[in-house]
């Protein structure tokens, strides 16, 4: 399962999201919007105005969402 986290520098919610995913052993790809702003327009087109934005298997959300991360951890564990 491919998981992407869109982040920015000095983002507390981004750090919490990455930490929670690390604790669950979820592998992810990071895209830092401060270093790669070209992706920002894609997120804005989807209606997002804050980071982190997590995209996984057709599902996406923004902000620190422990409930979504836990569900994603279960899905990854099931294969």
TrEMBL record:
<feature type="domain" description="Glutaredoxin">
    <location>
        <begin position="3"/>
        <end position="61"/>
    </location>
</feature>
<dbReference type="InterPro" id="IPR002109">
    <property type="entry name" value="Glutaredoxin"/>
</dbReference>
<dbReference type="InterPro" id="IPR011909">
    <property type="entry name" value="GlrX_NrdH"/>
</dbReference>
<keyword id="KW-0249">Electron transport</keyword>
<dbReference type="Pfam" id="PF00462">
    <property type="entry name" value="Glutaredoxin"/>
</dbReference>
<keyword id="KW-1015">Disulfide bond</keyword>
<dbReference type="InterPro" id="IPR036249">
    <property type="entry name" value="Thioredoxin-like_sf"/>
</dbReference>
<keyword id="KW-0813">Transport</keyword>
<comment type="function">
    <text>Electron transport system for the ribonucleotide reductase system NrdEF.</text>
</comment>
<comment type="similarity">
    <text>Belongs to the glutaredoxin family.</text>
</comment>
<protein>
    <recommendedName>
        <fullName>Glutaredoxin-like protein NrdH</fullName>
    </recommendedName>
</protein>
<keyword id="KW-0676">Redox-active center</keyword>
<dbReference type="InterPro" id="IPR051548">
    <property type="entry name" value="Grx-like_ET"/>
</dbReference>
